[in-house]
Amino acid sequence: ATREVKPQALALLLPNIGVTASGQYQNLEVLEIPDGLGGSRTKRESFGSGQGTALLNQTVYNRGQWIGLQRSADVISQAEAEYKTSQIQLMARTVEAYFNVLRAADLVRSSEALMRANERQLEQSKQRFDVGLVAITDVNDNQAAYDRSRATVITNTNQLDNAWEALRVIIGPVDVTLARLGDNLPLAPPEPNDIKEWTQVALQNNYTIQAASQAVAGAKKQVEIERSGHYPTLGLQAGYQLDRSGSEELGGFDTNGSYIGLNLNIPIYQGGAVSSRTRQAGHTLGATQEQLDAIRRQVNKEVTDSFRGVLSSISEVEARKAAIVSATSTLESTQAGLEVGTRTQVDVLNAQRQLYENEYLYLSARYDYI
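Request: output the structure for the sequence above.
Response:
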């Protein structure tokens, strides 16, 4: 839609040609017409008349319209940059919603695995209680853990459904299987590994900054357009006119006429409106420049945060992976301690819960890295 600004601005500088036509039917009554004998008479007449005009207007000099044509290029460039920004934002929203589904699915799988593990612990504790090896409190602890894990599965399943709906808002009402991440996710730092280079590239190529820069350029030209109200304008006008009348009493006439001329308009005083609009455009330009500066600072912050976030997320993924190994060893030793009576059933449940939590946090950290 914004691209149409340019042909509209160009149209003001091109010839404007139009044709108008009108026709009338008249019933005329002429009173007291001298008859040459000292008397008078009344004349009634009905006749038709018509007129046709072809008119051409051509701008010869109008400073505001010429600058307006130049400004249209800035407006279109701004819209192009905003459109590209919207495309990138759509990509980002889609990726985020996509991985939110995978993240929620991993949470469901992790909570279901914990529920099944708690169910096995509950069955084992019941069997041990039946033969008198444990107290009823161990059974109660396992039952409580199993009930909590069941409730967690229900909650996480609902969150998965919500994540799917958020994705369908973008891609439509589809039901497909999403590809998951591979087990071996390459963890690479930004290349080049220099935050200053990334910042410089972003300030030069970021579409949001480009759109704001074009807005500033357009605002500067708008100031000149408003200031052009003080300048004279010159236009050319040419026309061709036909007049036809069928009246006999009034002297029927048929005329053809043509003309060409220049119209010069020199504004002297317009009540201060032009000066006011020029000042208004200047204030708008100042605000637009401030917005550009704010966007540059915001982009610089986002690039810096993202660069450091990639590096920190690599470390977090590696740390989460190591935490799984540690939690697995802790669970195995806790289960062995339970067998010999040095650890309690609650210790086993906590170690079990910690292992599945670490597994989910590891998967979640990989999504954060991406």
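The two ends are 35 Å apart (CA to CA).
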